[in-house]
Write a structure and sequence with these properties.
This protein is mostly beta strands. Helices cover about 5% and strands about 40% of the residues. The protein has a single domain, classed as Ribbon (Umud Fragment, subunit A), CATH 2.10.109.
Length: about 140
């Protein structure tokens, strides 16, 4: 069962997008900006090292209570050393999965954010590796239901 589709990062484009450098107020409205003089290249913001960065599209709902749902795009950096609590793309016994990494003394656990799924306990008997650490989650704007 596939839980993530993975794609190599292509940072060859240099697309400058308008950027509200003063921020977007989520409280009381602020006066509208007549123009935006700043621009942003998302490749420069999201990709630290192109040779170790990949994008992944989430498949499934095991992380939905964390707000990560099917169709979301992940930015995954393979050069980051994983730490306890990191959101990681892991390779376990031939399959990729997206989970929170919990490191214990004698094993590690891959923890979902959906009570319908159990944690995966990883021991020396498993073919296991942390494939990469998720640095950003890109979401499509969705209506509340």
């Amino acid at each position: 069962m596939k839980s993530i589709e993975i794609y190599k990062a292509d940072i060859s484009s240099k697309e400058q997008l308008p950027f509200a450098n003063d921020g977007i107020h989520a409280g009381f409205p602020s006066p509208a900006q007549d123009y935006m003089e700043f621009s942003i290249d998302l490749n420069k913001v999201l990709v630290k090292d192109a040779s170790s960065t990949f994008f992944g599209r989430v498949v499934g709902d095991s992380m939905c209570d964390e707000g990560i749902i099917e169709g979301d795009i992940l930015v995954i950096d393979k050069s980051i050393e994983p730490e306890n609590g990191d959101l990681c793309v892991c390779f376990v016994d031939g399959e990729f999965t997206l989970k929170r990494l919990r490191i214990e003394d004698d094993h590690c656990e891959l923890v979902p954010s959906n009570p319908a799924y159990k944690s995966i306990v990883v021991t020396a008997d498993n073919n296991f590796m942390v494939w990469g650490v998720v640095t950003y989650t890109i979401k499509k704007n969705r209506k509340k239901r």
